[in-house]
Amino acid sequence: MLVQNSWAIVRSLSSKSRVFGFTFIEIMVVMVILAIAAVIAVPMMSSAGSMQIRSAANVIAADLEYAKSMAISRGQNFSVVFNDSTESYQIEDYNDVVIAHPVKKGFDYIVDFRNGRLDKVDIVDVDFNSTSRVEFDFLGSPDNGGVITLEASGTTMTVTVEAVTGFILISD
What we know:
- With 172 residues, the protein is α+β, with helices and mostly antiparallel strands.
- The protein folds into two domains: 2-46; 49-171, minor pseudopilin epsh fold.
- 40% of the residues lie in helices and 24% in strands.
- The chain has helices spanning 2-19, 24-46, 48-74, and strands at residues 78-83, 88-92, 110-112, 122-127, 133-136, 146-152, 155-161, 168-171.
- The strands form two sheets. It has a four-stranded antiparallel sheet, covered by helices on one side. The chain has a four-stranded antiparallel sheet with strand order 4-6-7-8, covered by helices on one side.
- A hairpin with a 4-residue loop joins strand 1 and strand 2.
């Protein structure tokens, strides 16, 4: 009887001690999960500049295509005018007036990299035959070809507009 009571006490003490602690294996599993999360997250944080420059190049290319399609569909000249000192550009109609943004109702079509989610991107250089403006005619042909050079966190990308065809190319 005494032996049975002793075993009952030992069993109840050992089961209570397991409730209040973690095993070594449980702690190691948590550490492995945290290590995997860190390995995935650290490269993502360090490449924020490269992600932003790629996004900025895609935005510029899309806006150049938009200006070209506006010129073709309306039968009038449309221009994209870059300002590398303010890290911005705008789309203008044939009267050199900034057009309304098609999505952001009530706003002009001005893209400013400094005041947005692409704030790490710098417009380093714009060269369309020594100007910072490219104008598309009613056929979608630019008045001259040129290059927009972007930089963010040591990464450089260029957006090229071909002279006759208006073909837009993004390159590293």
